[in-house]
Amino acid sequence: MSLVQWDWVARHGGEIGAQLGQHVLLTGLALGFGLLIAFPLALAAVRWPRFYGPSLGLTGILFTVPSLALFILLIPFTGLSIATSLIGLTIYTLLILFRNIVEGLRGVPADVSEAAKALGYSRGRRLVQVELPIALPVIMAGVRIAAVTTIGMVTVTALIGQGGLGQLFITGFTLHFTTPLLVGFVLSIALAVSVDLLLAGLLWWLTPWQRGRAT
């Protein structure tokens, strides 16, 4: 007997597509919210170095909380909702994003920042036009890691009814049926690889000077 029953896949194609769409949505929103939180934290840590240790410690502690336990703690406040999934998923992006943003900004040569300052660049203009472009490869490395990690984490939220492709794993385990398990497995890996390649391509497009250096 074939491991994949294609007739089942055909009958449930719409449902599988919806679950894939939810998986992409949850991943994108978690990364977006994670960046909105991690970026100002990182800026503060670079500006005031004493802030780095406590911020790293807090995001590190949150990262080590078991995912299922975190979702259970959130359910009394947010219920079995997409908000519960997003809060948990966003929390798990913070350590990776915060650390890479800080390291990227710290890696900007001091003489480059001083030269921009001497040219009359304001602090905000230096950040946007000088420091962030130089730090972008390190920052994007963190975004790529966070994205792939989040894609894997989304499947866990199926336990609260918001798990995208994770719903296929639950169906497979419940029915002792390999087809949804394999479909969920393959689509999860394909999604992670596709997103990673997409982000790598975005970095390549945003940093033309890196292309010239590589050649």
UniProtKB/TrEMBL annotation:
Lineage: superkingdom: Bacteria
Primary localization class, coarse: membrane
Short name of any one Pfam family annotated for the protein: BPD_transp_1
Gene3D superfamilies: MetI-like
Membrane topology (UniProt): Multi-pass membrane protein
The keyword Transmembrane helix belongs to this UniProt entry's keyword annotation: yes
Record keywords: Membrane, Transmembrane, Transmembrane helix, Transport
PROSITE patterns assigned: ABC_TM1 (PS50928)
Protein name (record): Quaternary ammonium transporter
